[in-house]
Amino acid sequence: MEELKNLLLSEGANLIGFSDLNGITTNKEMPFGISVAVKLPSKLIKSIHKGPNIFYYEEYYRINDLLDRIVTKGTEYLIKNGYKAFAQTTTTVIQTDDYKTALPHKTVATRAGLGWIGKCGLLVTKEYGSGIRISSFLTNAKLKCGNPVEKSFCGNCIECVKNCPGTAVSGKLWNVKMERSKLIDVNKCKKVARALAMERINKEITLCGKCFEVCPYTIKYMNSEK
Ligand code: B12
Ligand code: SF4
Ligand code: SF4
After folding, report:
1. What is residue 226's predicted lDDT score, i.e. its pLDDT?
2. Domain count, the chain
């Protein structure tokens, strides 16, 4: 599957991982996942220090479109080679009223070994911290999968807990059996992130990102890109 990886990289992916989702997904036809991450430009992360701005708003949509295109290309490649494949794009994924999806991109990512779930509930990678957006696609092609990450590497850090403007992050250390509600109050997050976006850019969107901007792993990435 080196060819698939190279294709995804050439389309703009920055991180790629393969995961075995047997026992995790209800989709028995396609039990393998491909996780794809695209980094946020470091100057964008720096720019949201005072809150969301138009640059973030535009990048949010640009990177979502890019991710949709990358996972669609990956899916087309697999189908062309005789496999089944399904792209989890912004239009194919269904979100429930309590802000859940059947197979979150973050689950596909931790099972591929790309990173862990931080205290704030975001995927944290050693390469980019949480300064990424992610997507995924599913297949029946037997992939050589990465080692799943099942524990947190946040340690005693509480930067995202201290700095969340909505006091939405509880501060618990993630493990694979933990429910999202133990980590983050999604209603508080959504309320404050929407209020910030309205106040700063006059847009109806959930846009904040303080939790990833202050993460030491994200900061390490930003400093490396100077
Ligand atoms: C609904 C949603 C929201 C809701 C709810 C947030 C939430 N955490 O669920 C609201 C509107 C509040 C929100 C806010 C934000 N969101 Co949002 N959101 C989503 C969306 C569309 C679905 C998430 C979902 O299914 N949640 C259900 C719960 C159960 O899953 P989860 O929290 O995603 O992840 C849990 C599982 O993955 C589980 N898990 C991990 N590994 C394993 C392994 C096993 C075996 C099991 C069983 C479970 C498990 O642990 C996680 C934490 O509990 C995803 C895109 C997607 N399709 O996945 C983006 C997504 C999670 N959001 C994202 C972002 C960036 C944000 C914001 C920063 C907004 C912004 N852009 O400024 C904030 C951050 C909030 C936060 N600290 O989590 C990114 C996260 C990127 C990253 N680095 O992790 C995503 C992936 C979008 C993307 N395409 O990149 N979001
Ligand atoms: S996006 Fe903002 S409000 Fe939501 S958890 Fe992160 S810091 Fe808190
Ligand atoms: S800010 Fe600290 S506690 Fe929060 S996700 Fe990053 S390393 Fe973990």
Report:
1. 66
2. 1
